[in-house]
Design goal:
By secondary structure, the protein is α/β, with parallel strands linked by helices. The protein has seven helices and 14 strands.
Length: about 250
Amino acid sequence: MRVTFLGTGAAMPSGRRSQTGLLLDADDDSLLVDCGSGVLNALARTETGYEGVSTVLLTHHHLDHVADLLPLVKARWLAGAEHLEIVGPQGTKELIDGLLDVHEYLDGRIDLRVREVVAESFSLAGFDVDARETRHSMYCLAYRFTHDDGPAFTFSADSEAFTNLMNFADGSAVLAHDCSFPDDVDVSNHPTPNQLGETLAGSGVEVGRVYLTHLYPHTEGRHEEMLESIGAHYEGDVRFARDGLAVEVE
């Protein structure tokens, strides 16, 4: 499985990072996870492209995770694609219906299928997926992905760091985790480096590598400081994700 970070930013633009989006590729299977602003353009730069992705999985419905959904629908229609499946937590159908009410000329242009999931296990676009509710200001799901019984990739989505979420990621070859702000920002619904490091260490999880993502502009120029804060508690391999980074999950 290959994970490409299409967007590693958040709701406040930095000029350097698109909003949240991940592309998973394995054999001939591809899955787009979240579709924030800038993700469609980043997807177009990949070998898979928006023509090659017929399924989108949403973690939640905040704008920085869904802003490019209708642009993706339109791009696939203009490219001659016949269908797109959008999967996400409860309320996803209402979200898509509302977007199409505003841009009604897109309604019916392609076969648009919407499916809602909860914290459960399911199969999607050739991947086996487990979902777990996070701690965020909106109902949000973290996902653990495997393909043909290979090594696992876990995406925390937007969430505070807490033990049950770490246990969910235990044994993953790669964990991409929210680390939105440095330690001197008083924040809820997202972790700071110190909170993330303490939780990783305290839970005793074993993961091959941790990538920090969902990065606000406040983190720019402070990466070393943030890594040191995590490293004061957790001795594992922790790195910053960046837009365009492709990681082999092995």
